[in-house]
Structures are given as structure tokens and as C-alpha cells.
Design a protein that fits this description.
heterodimer; A: mainly alpha; MetI-like fold; 76% helix; B: 309 residues; mainly alpha; 2 domains; two-stranded antiparallel ribbon; 14 helices; 2 strands; 69% helix; 1% strand
């Protein structure tokens, strides 16, 4: 009997190690692929930063170096203050548009989401369907009439076409994202508040806004990212260089000085730096924002 | 308080019917106005402009379906830009979905340090298109670019990535896969919703890793795949910035995307009526193809609820 258990346990022991070894090989492969893949995905950004410190002649020689032979931090001030460009102003313009748009997006999308999630009134379903349908509409369809509208209003070459529409609902996807969140908040909370005589505006402000802070942060961060990186809107509506945003400025820069890769990489690095910091600090919220607006 | 009772009675008998209606519309007023002013109104205007000759200066002149007829019979660039966009969409669809799904599978394995790996894979989404266009033009540079240096180091021939019509479009697919981590993020979320019990059950039944992938992962993930295919497809038709910044549609119009064509018609040549017609053709193409994908979805999308019925 003793021998039997010993044999049995040795059998299980052997199959256990075999299993574990196979599992370790599997994990090893997973790690190898993860490391190789993430290196591959980070490499373009690493090269961007490394190139931003190289000399002009080093960039235009073969074979290319991975790290600069000689580090030139002066590329940054040189690029930032390059003739016929105005990066300080373009940065200020971009920040101004962000500051003027962000409250509109957060407040109006949150109010609308509350209306769709919590209030009952005829036409609610219809309007919500229309909001969802507008996500599918390619923006080209409204592009030309809007351009003509802003032209008639005298808003071309101002920031208004980029700011004002955001105050009207703040984007269908954001309404959708916040409504999803509001639907999960237990109704007992607002019913109790109604008994206490609170108005819906107060319930929204005192209960829903504080409880939905993570979702509001997601909306805000995705909005900042969207405006910071927007190219098409500014390209259409902003015509004179003093009104450019960073994205347009970088495009003008690359059009004028197409060979100055060193400066272009320096400006690109500066442009993405705030977004990299934002992403590293708030990755959870940004990823959650993409997921909630992406899944039903 | 009264809400519970009210929900069972028809709205006519609600004594606060008008008050509730008014309050509801006050809350959603921003988006109601927004949709009317910035979406539906312009849609109607654009439909009308598409039937006119309109160069911004002066009034639109009604010409019937002339713009549409010209698009489909005489305009060679229209066909070219449509074909470029469709070829890009197919390449991006296949390569992008496969790569994103593979990365998502790696990022949902039970290993340590996943958080860091996810950060590495997701980070490129924050890079603006202009910056990535500038960056990739250098990476893909024929003479001094790092990618060709690696190829030549491996004894392979250098490729004139953006300079030759054969590879320029493919170069943009590569760039889009790099910046397209949103697809990966959504696959990761989808994979996290696949219940572990299914994998355990399959393991007990003796299914191999490959079998589990095809008989558990893919069916359970099919709604996510469906979503990514639809949005990726619509996104392909919005493709603009890299073509505008990197190649200006060249060489020999091999990256002349539909959207770039529309932009030039509207804002370079000020053919507002013609460009509006192009926008409507695009809208109808997207609508028809999206409906087609939706209608075909019961054939290949598995929804959890069906199991019970």
C-alpha cells in the first residue's frame, strides 16, 4: 500500500513537473513576445527623441546612428525660436482653445446625459437615437455648409468655429459615455433627494456630478487629447499664421524646412510631451473612456 | 415619489405632463439645438448644394444631378481616390485587426508587469497625426531612414517606401497600425469579458490552445470584432492627415485618398457644389456597406443571449 501511494505520488509528481515546464515555456514565450512587441512599438518614439538631439549632419549620413554621437540639447531652443515660426504663440492658441472648449463639453454633455438617463418625457428615445445616429454620419457631409455658415457669420480665421459647437452637447460619444455611467447610479439616491424637495438640477449637481467624477475625467482627458491633436478643423478654419494651433504650426514648419529633421523631431517631442505625461498619469481614465465609448 | 405610480399610468393622465416634458427638454436642450444647427440643418443644405454649381462667391445655381453624373462618368480622380481608399480600408482591416488582436491576446495573459506592457503598446495613441506623419516620413526615408538601414543590415534591398506608388499606401497602413491602439484597447476589454469557465471547460474536454482560440475566444469575441470592423471601416474613409502631410496624395496619386480629393475640390478649387456631391456619395457608400455588415452579422456574430433562447 505504501509502495502504491509512493508510485502514485511519483506519477503525479512527474506529470506535475512536465506540466509546469510546459507552462514555463509558454510564459517564456509570452514574455519574449511582449518585450519584443513593446520595444517595436516604443522604437519610433525613442528614435524621435534620440533624433531630436542629433546634429543635422549626423542625421543625413549613412548608416543612421541609434543614439546621438554628440548630444545637442540646443536643437530645442533653436527649433522653438526658428525664424518665421511662432511656437510660443501657437502653443498659447492651442491652450486657449482647450480652455474655452473643455467646460462646454463637460457641462453640456453631462446635462444632456442626465436628461437621457433619468428624466421621462415624450421624444426622449427619438432624440437619443438621433444622437447615436449622428455618430455614424461622416463629418464631410456637414463640412461645407458649416464652412459657409461660419463664413457668413464672419467667424473664419477665428477660434469660434472650433469652440462654439462644443457647447451644444459636447459630442455624441461623450453624451453616450456619461449616460452609460448615469444609468448605473442607483435610482434610490435621486428618489430620496426628490422626497427631500431637491430639484433635478440640484440632483444632477449634488449627486450625479460628484459620483460620476471618473467618467467626467475620462471625457475631459479625451477632449483635451482630441483638441491638442486636431488638425482638420484648424486647417479649414484658421488661415493666418498668427492664429495657428501647434498641429498647424508643425505642419507649416515641415512644409517650409522639410530637411531639418532635427528641429522637426524636437518640436514633435515637445508637442507630444504634455500628452505623454497626461497619459502616464491618467492612463486608467483614458483607456476607460475609449472602452466605454467603444462598447455598448 | 409619484414617479412609481406614474410609470404605470398613461402619460395623458400625468398631472405634471407639461412640466416634465419642459424639464426634460431643458436638460437635453444643448444637444437638441446642436443637432439642428450643426448637423441636420447643414445636412439639408449640403444635399441642396450637391445639386448646384456653387463657388462660394455668388449664389448657388441649381443644376440637377449634373455633379453626380460628372462624378460617375467623367471624373477619373474620383474613381482613383475611391479605389485608393477602398484598398487602404481592406489592407488596414486585415492587418490592423490581426495585429491588434494578437497584441490584445498577449496583454490579457496572466503574467507580471502587464501594466507596463499595456502602457508601451497604448502610448502611440496620444501622438497627433501631424507628428506621426513627420516622424514616419523620417523613419521611412529612402536614403537615411532607420527602417531601410535595418533592412540593408539584414542584407535586404532598401525600399523606396513613400516614393514609389507600389509601397506608399502600404506605408500608411503600417503607420496607422502603430497609432491604432484604440482597436487593441477594445479587444483587451472584450477578452476580459470572456468567462474563465469556458476556457476551463474546454481544457477539461482536452482542447488545445489553438482549438480554444478558435472555438472559445473567437466566437465569444465576435461582437467586439464586429464593432472594430465597423468603426475601422468608417475610420478608413475619414483618412486624411498623413496623406495630406506626408505625400500630398502622391506619388502618381497612389495615396490620393477620397477625403483629400474632397478637401481639394472644396478648399483649393472652391467647387462647393461638387464637393457636397462627393460628400453625399461617400455617405451613401458608408451607409450601404455598414448596413451590409450589420445584415451579415447574424451569420458570424455570436451574442451571449442567444444561448438561452
Amino acid at each position: 500500500m505504501n509502495a502504491a501511494t509512493a508510485r502514485q505520488s511519483s506519477v503525479t509528481y512527474r506529470s506535475d513537473t512536465a506540466h509546469r515546464r510546459r507552462k514555463q515555456v509558454g510564459m517564456g514565450t509570452v514574455y519574449a513576445l511582449l518585450i519584443a512587441g513593446s520595444l517595436l512599438f516604443m522604437l519610433p518614439l525613442i528614435i524621435m527623441v534620440s533624433t531630436s538631439f542629433k546634429s543635422f549632419s549626423e542625421i543625413n549620413s549613412y548608416p543612421p546612428t541609434f543614439l546621438p554621437k554628440e548630444w545637442l540639447p540646443n536643437n530645442y531652443p533653436d527649433a522653438w525660436n526658428y525664424q518665421n515660426t511662432d511656437f510660443p504663440r501657437w502653443t498659447a492658441n492651442t491652450l486657449l482653445i482647450v480652455a474655452a472648449t473643455l467646460p462646454g463639453v463637460v457641462i453640456s454633455s453631462s446635462l444632456c446625459a442626465y436628461g437621457f438617463a433619468r428624466l421621462r418625457f415624450p421624444g426622449r428615445r427619438l432624440w437619443f437615437m438621433l444622437v447615436l445616429a449622428s455618430i455614424m454620419l461622416p463629418p464631410q457631409v456637414t463640412l461645407i455648409p458649416l464652412y459657409i455658415l461660419f463664413f457668413r457669420l464672419g467667424w473664419l480665421n477665428t477660434f469660434l468655429p472650433l469652440i462654439v459647437p462644443a457647447w451644444f452637447g459636447g459630442g455624441a460619444l461623450n453624451i453616450f459615455l456619461l449616460r452609460q455611467f448615469y444609468m448605473q447610479i442607483p435610482r434610490e439616491l435621486d428618489e430620496a433627494a426628490i422626497i427631500d424637495g431637491a430639484s433635478h438640477l440640484m440632483i444632477w449637481w449634488r449627486i450625479y456630478v460628484p459620483l460620476s467624477r471618473p467618467a467626467l475625467v475620462s471625457v475631459a482627458l479625451l477632449t483635451v487629447l482630441g483638441i491638442w491633436n486636431d488638425f482638420f478643423g484648424p486647417l479649414i478654419y484658421l488661415t493666418s499664421p498668427e492664429n495657428y494651433t501647434l498641429a498647424l504650426g508643425l505642419n507649416m514648419f515641415q512644409g517650409l524646412f522639410v530637411t531639418r529633421t532635427d528641429y522637426m523631431m524636437a518640436i514633435s517631442t515637445l508637442m507630444i510631451l504634455p500628452m505623454v505625461v497626461m497619459f502616464l498619469l491618467a492612463q486608467r481614465y483614458i483607456v476607460q473612456g475609449f472602452v466605454t465609448s467603444g462598447l455598448k | 415619489m409619484t414617479d412609481l405610480a406614474l410609470s404605470r399610468t398613461p402619460p395623458k393622465r400625468n398631472p405634471h405632463f407639461w412640466r416634465d416634458t419642459l424639464r426634460g427638454y431643458l436638460f437635453i436642450l444643448p444637444v437638441v439645438l446642436g443637432l439642428i444647427i450643426w448637423t441636420f440643418g447643414p445636412m439639408l443644405a449640403s444635399a441642396y448644394y450637391s445639386l448646384t454649381d456653387y463657388k462660394i462667391v455668388g449664389e448657388p445655381v441649381f443644376v440637377g444631378f449634373k455633379n453626380y453624373v460628372e462624378l460617375f462618368t467623367r471624373d477619373r480622380l474620383f474613381g482613383q481616390s475611391l479605389s485608393v481608399t477602398v484598398r487602404y480600408a481592406i489592407m488596414y482591416m486585415v492587418i490592423g485587426q490581426v495585429v491588434s488582436l494578437m497584441i490584445a491576446l498577449l496583454l490579457t495573459q496572466r503574467v507580471r508587469g502587464l501594466g507596463i506592457f499595456r502602457t508601451f503598446f497604448y502610448l502611440p495613441i496620444i501622438v497627433p497625426y501631424v507628428a506621426s506623419a513627420v516622424l514616419w516620413r523620417y523613419l521611412l526615408n529612402k536614403d537615411f531612414g532607420p527602417i531601410n538601414a535595418v533592412l540593408q543590415g539584414l542584407g535586404l534591398p532598401a525600399i523606396n517606401w513613400l516614393g514609389s506608388p507600389e509601397s506608399a499606401l502600404f506605408s500608411m497602413v503600417i503607420m496607422s497600425v502603430w497609432t491604432g491602439a484604440v482597436t487593441t484597447i477594445i479587444y483587451v476589454a472584450g477578452l476580459q469579458h470572456v468567462p474563465d469557465e469556458l476556457y476551463d471547460a474546454a481544457k477539461i474536454d482536452g482542447a488545445s490552445g489553438v482549438q480554444r482560440f478558435f472555438s472559445v475566444t473567437i466566437p465569444m469575441l465576435s461582437p467586439t470584432i464586429f464593432f472594430n470592423v465597423v468603426t475601422g471601416f468608417i475610420g478608413s474613409f475619414q483618412f486624411f492627415v498623413p496623406a495630406f502631410v506626408m505625400t500630398d496624395g502622391g506619388p502618381v496619386k497612389s495615396t490620393y485618398f477620397y477625403n483629400l480629393n474632397l478637401y481639394e475640390k472644396a478648399f483649393k478649387w472652391l467647387e462647393m457644389g461638387y464637393a457636397s456631391a462627393m460628400a453625399w456619395v461617400l455617405f451613401i457608400i458608408i451607409l450601404v456597406l455598414t448596413l451590409f455588415i450589420f445584415r451579415s452579422s447574424p451569420l458570424w456574430v455570436y451574442y451571449d443571449g442567444e444561448a438561452q433562447s
